[in-house]
Request: fold
Amino acid sequence: MITTNSSSLLFRACCLALTVTAMTFAIRAGILTQLSSEFGLTDAELGWVNSMAFLGFPVAMMIGGALYNQLGAKKLLVTAFICHLLGLWLTITANGFWGLLISTFFIGFANGAVEAGCNPLIAQLYKDDKTTMLNRFHVWFPGGIVIGAIISKFMTDAGLGWQLQIAVMLVPTLIYGFLVFKQQFPQVHRAASTSTLSNFKALSQPLFIFMVLCMTLTATTELGTQQWIDRILSASGASPMLIMAMITGVMAVGRYFAGPVIHRLNPVGVLLFSAVIATLGIYSMSIATGNAVYLSALLFAIGVTYFWPTMIGFIAEYVPETGALGLSLIGGAGMFAVSLWNPIIGQWIDSARTHATTITNNDLDAELLAGQSVLANLTLFPMLLIVAFTLLYFYMNKIKSANVVPADSLAK
Reply:
């Protein structure tokens, strides 16, 4: 039997596993310039390396979601632990483009297994407060990015190589692996095959499909921008890794105190508000330089804070028939979209830099113009979300008026 204390320990193990996931994201962003220099990689090639992490993630999410009822959260988290160890070690020993591709895929697969196991586990442990607890769990994605960004900055400033920065992540990986092996996990629904079949059937609901499409935009807005922050803002006059630490610090605090925000605005209102602020944040970053970049980044941080956990919480609350499979696929769709956009963003940077060098003889100015051009392109994603979430807002209000969805559930 799972007690309150057991639930708390399981929640902490999940949070630490997600912290490792986030650290892989932040430290990879922080060492892109070192990788480019050491292996002679273009930004387009770096984009392909980045894309492997975002491709491995949805592959694990889809497999984990489909098999969750048979495997349970513990086996998925054990898989994540093994793949994290393997991916980190292969990254440290990589000697070129292909080695980085393979190792980064394993890390992405591990990250996806963490989400595939933890999201439905937390929804099961906290049945009456799913969206709030999922937001608190996802505090540790920005929280881990803060940790990773600070580690990367100080190790880089100290002249320590990228291999040592990767090796640092082995420590929290071993700790969360120990916790996972030690804890007792709740039993999965007995009628597993029937439950999984009903989950698959529920995926055809128009609301679920609509939210999957929106997730591709929310994830690219948040992660597509942050993963390239060092390359995009390197010539802006602000420190990219300090900006990442600030962004994710704001996100961590916002997610921890998500409960009152979710209850006051409801999930759809939160998503619409987030899209508007994210648009303003990215656009202002595209025209800002110096200290003004920090203020623009703050707007961006507020905008993307609630995207990921609220999208997952929305599915858990309003399309619960999709079960663990639905939670996995919504997250997997977001990461898959980012994997597709990463090489394109890299090409945008290469092309924008080439164009900028034709109008200025200053390399720094060319980097600044290239970064601003890419940010202007990224503004399109949250702008589309403003339209999508406005439509969703009116649709959910219509359902509420028709009493199809109880009014009290919409306030959760």
Observations:
- The domain at 4-182+199-403 is CATH 1.20.1250.20 (Growth Hormone; Chain: A;).
